[in-house]
Backbone:
């Protein structure tokens, strides 16, 4: 069963890396939230294609890396094809029937060196093909984008900063809310000095955030403009809406 083992040695870890990549991608859960809260009604076909392309593109990096490394090392490829070795390429191998069955019983590493060379060649071909495909996709992305290079870089920096600040602030808010509940139950709350200082600075904190507001800032978002004003995220859109309506 060398053939099945060799394919599994390359394919199964690659599949596991792909699934893990999907799970660790924040956009995956944005799509899930979008389908759950809005049934994807506001998600256009082009936006969905771009988003899924981004998710899949990030998720396949690790599987491709694993596959290329496996091919360059050659063990799994050689093991998979060991039962298909031509006996005439081996010295003093007697003629015999059922050649594939007999060849499959040989240790995987005792096959002719050209098989490893084929594996390495295939690995470098995969590297070259993927590199060219990534370059062409990046060119297509920038050609089809309505944003200039600098504004797109700014948008990326904004999203990164917003996510970092949001997570940091959410941690403090959750700690404040938990502290209030614990204090109401016990009559006091045991806080460290640093935590006391953090919560002391939260004078204007919103104790409870309604689910509707959470839904407004959760889900898929693609760049858009309102009256020539850039809107960089759902949180940015929510902030503009609340300011315009004095909410």
Residues:
């Amino acid at each position: 069963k060398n053939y099945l083992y060799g394919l599994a040695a390359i394919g199964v870890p690659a599949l596991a890396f792909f699934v893990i990549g999907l799970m660790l991608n924040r956009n995956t859960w944005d799509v899930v939230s979008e389908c759950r809260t809005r049934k994807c009604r506001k998600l256009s076909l082009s936006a969905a294609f771009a988003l899924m392309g981004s998710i899949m593109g990030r998720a396949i990096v690790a599987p491709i890396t694993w596959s290329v490394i496996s091919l360059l090392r050659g063990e799994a490829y050689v093991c998979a094809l060991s039962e298909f070795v031509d006996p005439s390429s081996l010295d003093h191998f007697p003629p015999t029937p059922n050649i594939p069955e007999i060849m499959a019983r040989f240790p995987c590493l005792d096959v002719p060196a050209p098989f490893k060379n084929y594996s390495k060649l295939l690995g470098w071909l995969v590297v070259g093909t993927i590199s060219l495909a990534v370059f062409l996709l990046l060119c297509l992305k920038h050609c089809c984008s309505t944003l200039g290079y600098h504004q797109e870089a700014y948008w990326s920096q904004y999203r990164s900063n917003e996510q970092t600040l949001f997570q940091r602030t959410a941690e403090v808010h959750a700690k404040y809310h938990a502290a209030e509940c614990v204090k109401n139950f016990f009559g006091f709350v045991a806080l460290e000095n640093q935590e006391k200082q953090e919560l002391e600075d939260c004078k204007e904190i919103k104790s409870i955030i309604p689910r509707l507001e959470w839904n407004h800032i959760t889900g898929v978002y693609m760049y858009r403009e309102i009256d020539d004003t850039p809107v960089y995220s759902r949180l940015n859109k929510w902030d503009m809406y609340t300011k315009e309506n004095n909410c």
